């Protein structure tokens, strides 16, 4: 099966995973929706797969439209303009726009849909500057993770690690978790912006909360969040052991650690592997398990 890859992600998605359409989840699989615990935030979610041509010619980012519980709609992660997303936005109306984080494959059409709809544009508190740099639009208002998006019933959960500002949005149909998790493969947590300790804490937080499902920005809906969180935690523990063993074997510089810590050929994504290794090294240094001066680990 042909595979496509997203430049910001290590994982490859098979074609079947990228063939999404505008799907109202609760209508997509009524039998499964019936099993969703009724929560005070219950509302419908629409997923729209958007080709991300600027950074990942064959990749997609899923934009989400979420009812706010006040008769309004929140648009999350409009990666780019598309006919499907135009249609969904026009059909549902959009009163709020927010992003899970500031990467280019999540923010490309924030300005366009803000202009098209006149929606309130939200940024995380303290991140208005980077948000404007990334989106080209100044936020109208700011939200605080750990609280509900003001004026809506949508809780925002702090999920840093992939990036410092990364958040998830809680809906009755599942959590919009951006680039925290993917059904297959893994997401990049790479230095300097990636923080491995924060990332693992975010995965554990989601695991503990045990949402009905995760609605990631890349790849299919995750129906078994705990199993996926456990898999991703295992994956990181495995890589951490390999990184630590490489350093203890005398490999000091990131390039050498990469070659020792990966069995597979990572030459095509060496920069990402190197950034990941440094993120692991930084975590291990904070924990006192090795010494790291920014160039050499011992
Ligand atoms: Zn990202």
Q: How would you explain this protein's 3D organization?
A:
Helices cover 35% and strands 20% of the residues. With 298 residues, the protein is of the alpha/beta class. It folds into 2 domains: 3-223, Ribonuclease Z/Hydroxyacylglutathione hydrolase-like (Metallo-beta-lactamase, Chain A, 4-Layer Sandwich), CATH 3.60.15; 224-298, Arc Repressor Mutant, subunit A (Orthogonal Bundle). The strands form 3 sheets. A 7-stranded mixed β-sheet has the order 3-4-5-6-7-8-9. Helix 8 (196-209) runs antiparallel to helix 9 (225-248). The chain starts with a strand and ends in a 12-residue tail after the last helix. Zinc ion is lined by residues 8, 101, 103, 162, 179.
Structural class label: alpha/beta
Overall residue-averaged pLDDT value: 85
Chemical compounds bound to the protein: zinc ion
Order of helices and strands: EEHEHHEEEHEHHEHEEEEHEHHH
What is the strand arrangement across the widest sheet? 3-4-5-6-7-8-9
Please provide the count of β strands.
Answer: 13
CATH class of the largest domain, anyone?
Answer: Alpha Beta
β content, as a range? 15-25%
In CATH, the homologous superfamily of the largest domain goes by the name Ribonuclease Z/Hydroxyacylglutathione hydrolase-like
pLDDT < 50 stretches: 1-42, 54-58
Helix count equals 11
Integer tally of domains: 2
CATH architecture group name of the largest domain: 4-Layer Sandwich
Q: How many angstroms separate the termini?
A: 43 Å
Overall form: elongated
Report the biggest beta sheet as strand number plus sense, adding barrel if it closes.
7 strands, mixed
Helicity, in percent?
25-40%
Assign the CATH topology of the largest domain. Metallo-beta-lactamase, Chain A
Radius of gyration: 19 Å
């Amino acid at each position: 099966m042909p595979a496509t890859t997203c430049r910001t992600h290590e994982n490859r998605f098979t074609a079947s995973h990228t063939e999404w359409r505008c799907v109202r989840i609760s209508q997509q699989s009524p039998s499964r929706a019936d099993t969703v615990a009724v929560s005070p935030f219950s509302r419908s979610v629409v997923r729209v797969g958007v080709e991300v041509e600027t950074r990942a010619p064959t990749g997609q980012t899923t934009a989400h439209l979420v009812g706010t519980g006040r008769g309004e709609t929140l648009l999350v992660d409009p990666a780019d303009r598309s006919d499907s997303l135009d249609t969904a936005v026009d059909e549902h109306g959009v009163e709020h726009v927010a992003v899970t984080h500031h990467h280019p494959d999540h923010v490309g059409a924030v300005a366009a849909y803000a202009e098209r709809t006149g929606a309130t544009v939200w940024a995380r508190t303290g991140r208005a500057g980077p948000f404007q740099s990334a989106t080209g639009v100044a936020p109208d208002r700011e939200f605080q993770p750990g609280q509900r998006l003001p004026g809506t019933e949508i809780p925002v959960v702090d999920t840093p690690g992939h990036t410092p500002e990364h958040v998830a949005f809680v809906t009755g149909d599942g959590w919009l978790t951006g680039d925290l998790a993917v059904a297959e493969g893994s997401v990049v947590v790479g230095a300097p912006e990636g923080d491995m300790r924060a990332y693992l804490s975010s995965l554990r937080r989601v695991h503990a909360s045990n949402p009905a499902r995760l609605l990631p920005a890349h790849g299919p809906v995750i129906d078994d969040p705990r199993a996926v969180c456990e898999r991703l935690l295992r994956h990181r523990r495995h890589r951490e052991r390999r990184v630590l063993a490489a350093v203890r074997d005398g490999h000091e510089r990131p390039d050498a650690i990469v070659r020792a810590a990966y069995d597979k050929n990572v030459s095509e994504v060496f920069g990402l592997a190197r950034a990941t290794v440094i993120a692991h090294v930084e975590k291990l240094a904070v924990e006192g398990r090795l010494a790291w001066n920014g160039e050499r680990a011992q």
